[in-house]
Amino acid sequence: GLHIIAIVFTLEVSVGKTNTVMALNNSNVLLPCTFITCIGFQDLVFTWYFNSTELIYHGRIKSKAAEPLLVGRNPRVEFVGSTTGKENNISIVLRNVEFSDAGRYTCHVKNPKEKNAQHNATIFLTVVQKMVETDNTLTLIIVGVVGGLIGLLILFMLIKRVVLFIIKKTQDGKKECLVSSSGNDNTENGLAGSKAEQKAPPKA
């Protein structure tokens, strides 16, 4: 019979949780990139491209036990990764960033051990004159309003409990007065209906 063998390539390339980076003009910026392969690698080739066409770094890794060898690079690009550790890091640093450096940077990996499997990930660089602080005024206003409402609610609940407590005490006091007044003996106070007035007058 005919047997079909499915080969699943496990090579993955990542630039981290976010694919955007912002850098100040004339500063250095890190362009992160890592790769994962479950079956290992041999003579792996990785390249960095600017806007998909301009090659700015080219490296080759013989095996897991060896660090990458430089094949070619842009003078302003420096390799800062390591592949002998736990994470296969092939990150680079772009020095003295200029406004013209803004654009798309692609980290491309090719692994001959996985039938020349290839994978890439892209990161977008924005270059600015100065970093703009995030305006949190609206957030602070919302937090303040919510906090104020919660505070008012708590105050209302406390006032309600105090009022209910006072009402209960007042009602308990009235009950005590009613009990004590209904229990008075009127035999000696000369009031109408007392036992003293109910006696028959003496006979002449």
TrEMBL record:
It is found in: Membrane. Residues 179-189 have a biased composition (Polar residues). SUPFAM superfamilies: Immunoglobulin. Signal peptide: none annotated. GO terms for molecular function: sodium channel regulator activity; transmembrane transporter binding. The chain crosses the membrane at residues 138-159. This is SCN4B protein. The lineage of its organism: Eukaryota, Metazoa, Chordata, Craniata, Vertebrata. The gene is Scn4b.
